[in-house]
Amino acid sequence: MPSTPSKAQLMELLAHSVSTHYADFTSAAADLSLTASQAKTLSVLRRAPASMRSLAHTLACDASNMTGIIDRLEKRDLVHREVSSTDRRVKNVALTETGEKAIDTIRERMEQTQTGLDKLSEEERTELFRLLTVVFPH
Amino acid sequence: MPSTPSKAQLMELLAHSVSTHYADFTSAAADLSLTASQAKTLSVLRRAPASMRSLAHTLACDASNMTGIIDRLEKRDLVHREVSSTDRRVKNVALTETGEKAIDTIRERMEQTQTGLDKLSEEERTELFRLLTVVFPH
DNA sequence: GCTCGATGCTTGAGAACATCAAACAATACG
DNA sequence: CGTATTGTTTGATGTTCTCAAGCATCGAGC
């Protein structure tokens, strides 16, 4: 019977978990010749198209950064820009079909994470899902 | 009554959680004028000293990368190199006291994550701790 | 309509980070 | 020993990052 972990312990474990997940993600992305930043961008866009600015906010980087990243993704036809119909300053970025396949493939290839999740029962997966949703809400 | 999430849904949520955590971490690190890579390195070293090679492995990057990152951290006295006593090729990197304080401060300042964890009861925190340990073992 | 401040994106300069190949020293092992 | 292997560094090249500046567009008010 484990005692309650301190918040610091939980932060430490979170850091470790994130770091493991990130390493897994990065090497799966590298298999597709994608950098971590490029793949992270695809991952964010998997949920929904987004403007340059909101992408930058989600990825915690400067907006000027996104220009280059999206340029390179667009050159490979993984993503496309579209001027917003309601505000001509805004450019909405969306995944192409190829881009969608790419990020799905990356997630399928994250073996460490997949193996880890396989160790959970259905109830445990449901509970993990619930807890993560509480801690990291949309 | 939530149904069991599919593995893909769980991967998606994990990606979102990691991304939120990462953004939080990056901006807390920036407050201390540390880049994400530098702070991540400190985070790994918080557990235990490590050689250049094992750092590179944990951070999923080339060993030659670490040279520059550790150089810059050492210049700011957050970390120090020490030639291994058993193998003179190996350099072990360890946090200085300043470095330890830096990473602890960063974790304390991760407001989004802290706020999220505060939403959990003690039992839930214990359970999250257990589940993460299963999915991402040491 | 017009001006003016704010907003969204891009560009350019300079630092950090990433990968790869190649070098070097030290070790391991036949 | 001699030879292969390992751990770290260096150098070249491309990507990412931050910051300041630029341009176009929007929105609120006159």
TrEMBL record, chains A, B:
GO terms for molecular function: DNA binding; DNA-binding transcription factor activity. Keywords: DNA-binding, Transcription, Transcription regulation. GO terms for biological process: response to stress. It comes from the Bacteria. It holds the Pfam family MarR. The keyword DNA-binding applies. InterPro entries: HTH_MarR-typ (IPR000835), MarR/SlyA-like (IPR039422), Tscrpt_reg_MarR-type_CS (IPR023187), WH-like_DNA-bd_sf (IPR036388), WH_DNA-bd_sf (IPR036390). Residues 7-137 form the HTH marR-type domain. This is Winged helix DNA-binding protein.
